Amino acid sequence: MSTYDLIIRNGTIATASDVFKCDIAVRDGKIVQMGEKLSGAGREIDASGKYVLPGGIDSHVHISQPSGAGIVMADDFETGSLSALFGGNTTLMPFCLQERGVPLRETLKHYHAKAEGQCYTDVSFHLIVCDPTDAVLGQDIPALVADGYTSLKVFMTYEDLRLDDAAILKTLDVARQSKATVMVHCENEDAIRFLVEKHELSGNVKPLAHAQTRPVAVEREATHRALSLAEIVDVPIVIVHISNGQAMDELSRARSRGVKVLGETCPQYLMLTADDLDGMDWEGAKFVCSPPPRTEAEQKECWTGIETGIFDLFSSDHCPFRFDDPQGKLNPKGKTNFRHIPNGIPGVEVRQPILFSEGFLKGRIDLPRFVALTSTNHAKTYGLYPRKGTLSIGADADIAIWDPEEKHTIRHADLHDGSDYSPYEGIEITGWPTTVILGGKVMVDDGKLTGKKGDGQYRPATTHA
Exposed/middle/buried for 237, CB within 10 Å: 0-12, 13-18, 19+? Predict the structure, then answer.
């Protein structure tokens, strides 16, 4: 009888703090031994010349989310988690969107039903709060946090989602009392609406106008306001999908005042620009997301944030819609006015490969920083650590084995999401996760799917200290 179920040997191991050589032994879904010349496993994987890393955790993804009348999101939990898996991820954290008038617990029931038996990765849910009634704040949120739903998201934009400052303060205060983590989407909706009306009056309604009506100042002001509200309540927050240097400066200033804030950015702010929205024949609709991609100068600022520690989290903000589809980007209204193009782009599968290739292999960051940005910090921020996000004895055996020499040209035809395009089409990538292990089970073996739908499970989270 074998001592272990699996041994991974001869690889270079990396955590958020160290890089070292050793073998890893797995039994019953957990890492149970790390050392030299381990033996006695039912299966061995030779990782010579490869990096053995914690499975990626993408803590900012939208899957099967209500998106307005006539609009359908491109990914369900099957395709979304499959795409994530092939990108080296073992845990996804989708959002449960509370529609106005629907209790949070009922919303969660719907999302669990959508995910049950469909996932190739583990999942843990965030709650979107858009209807913070007294009952939601006084009863629902504290009870749900205690049940393992420990992170909330609030919006300062989108008319049907946004909260005013008073509602944000109340939500932050409940989070402080229940020790939940709050994520904030920072854009000033009133300023956006003012600019949208001006563009529509002048007939400027092509996709590029989306970026022009959501300028840096709109994000910077809202970021400053969110940080001020968090400072008033004295609660930690996460500013999500930061796209520019001025918003980054707001984070730095708040930290200097003692505000506890984490910053997140995404591949679109490192690889795309607003010019991509100016494509021919409405092709620019493929790149419509909020905040929008900025200038090359702002790209450089975001890379600086990756390199210097301003950013703690690197997420995909995967929010997929089909492009050439009447229920997607080119819906009847979306084909005539940028305001009706669904906001969001696919990216869960290429999030890690982009940062591995453009960040680590090009010398912008070291390997521990890559692991922190793509896995460990997500687990620590959202209550999954140390079960997730690291390679240590007792942790889940969620492991990605990376070949640093494997080259890919990103083509949507090779990806696994439900969309019909990739905004990163044609980008040359070096380094790819060739083997992915979830809870000790080899799900992707040398680039081929060996796991099955339903192998991924829901995982509750814990609160911060």
Answer: buried
- Cβ neighbours of residue 323 closer than 8 Å, sequence gap 6 or more: 285, 286, 329, 330, 419, 420, 421
Rounded Cα distance, 113 and 417, in Å = 20
**Residues 261-271: what's their mean pLDDT?**
98
Closest C-alpha among 279, 360, 373, 290 to residue 323: 279
Kind plus residue range of the DSSP H or E element containing 113? helix 104-115
Q: What's the whole-number mean pLDDT along residues 45-61?
A: 98
Q: pLDDT tens digit string along 407-463?
A: 999 999 999 999 999 999 999 999 999 999 999 999 999 999 999 999 999 999 999
State yes or no: pLDDT of 133 exceeds 80. Answer: yes
DSSP H helices, 179-325, are: 189-201, 208-212, 216-233, 245-256, 268-271, 296-308
Q: What is the mean pLDDT of the chain?
A: 97
Q: What is the Cα–Cα distance from 161 to 66, expressed in whole angstroms?
A: 12
Answer positive or negative: Cα dihedral of 368, 370, 373, 377: negative
- For residue 37, the SS3 value is coil
Contacts of 59 (CB under 8 A, 6+ apart): 93, 126, 313, 315, 378, 381, 382
Q: In 3D, which of 89, 122, 50, 93 has the Cα closest to residue 352?
A: 89
Whole-model pTM: value is 0.98
Q: Characterize 99-126 residue by residue with b for buried, 16 or more Cβ atoms within 10 angstroms of its Cβ, and e for exposed.
A: eeeeebeebbeebeebbeebbbbbbbbb
pLDDT band at 279 (very low <50, low <70, confident <90, very high): confident
CB 432 within 8 A of CB 417: no
**To the nearest whole percent, how much of the chain has pLDDT over 90?**
96
Pairwise CA distance, residues 314 & 319, whole Å = 15
**Contact of 111 with 78, CB cutoff 8 Å:** no
